[in-house]
Design a protein that fits this description.
It is built from five helices and five strands. The protein is an alpha/beta fold. It has a five-stranded parallel beta sheet with strand order 2-1-3-4-5, sandwiched between helices. β4, α4 and β5 form a beta-alpha-beta unit. α2 packs parallel to α3. The chain is globular. The N and C termini lie close together (12 Å).
Length: 118
């Protein structure tokens, strides 16, 4: 079973995504800060990390970069309400798997996760 880490500071969005992805059959863990995510990554492997770009401590791109020593094969999808073409291009150049804007299209998210896991 694939493991997904969700990093989202909006607790309603976080709990909703965790439940939706659990219902789809994924082992899903959610945290509300980038530093909590890094602590988790020290001890657990995830196939996909779905992270908000704007977090209270470090941004999603910084989280991605700092997660690389723990799990190079994990795919990272950054989500944001503050869409910027420059941010998306920068993220993709640095190796982020994909960049989504909020509100999240769940069908698109499911397809991306399935492709990332394969």
């Amino acid at each position: 079973m694939a493991r997904i880490l969700i990093v989202e500071d909006d607790l309603n969005t976080l709990s909703g995504l965790v439940e939706i992805l659990k219902d789809k059959g994924y082992e899903t863990v959610g945290v509300d800060t980038g530093l909590k995510a890094l602590k988790l990554l020290e001890h657990r492997h995830f196939n996909v990390m779905l992270t908000d770009y704007k977090l209270p401590d470090i941004d999603g791109l910084e989280l991605y970069k700092r997660s690389l020593p723990y799990t190079m094969e994990m795919k990272t999808i950054i989500i944001t309400a503050y869409s910027s073409v420059n941010d998306a291009v920068e993220a993709m150049k640095k190796g982020v798997y994909h960049y989504l804007t909020k509100p999240i299209n769940l069908d698109e998210l499911f397809i991306l996760i399935d492709k990332a896991i394969r």
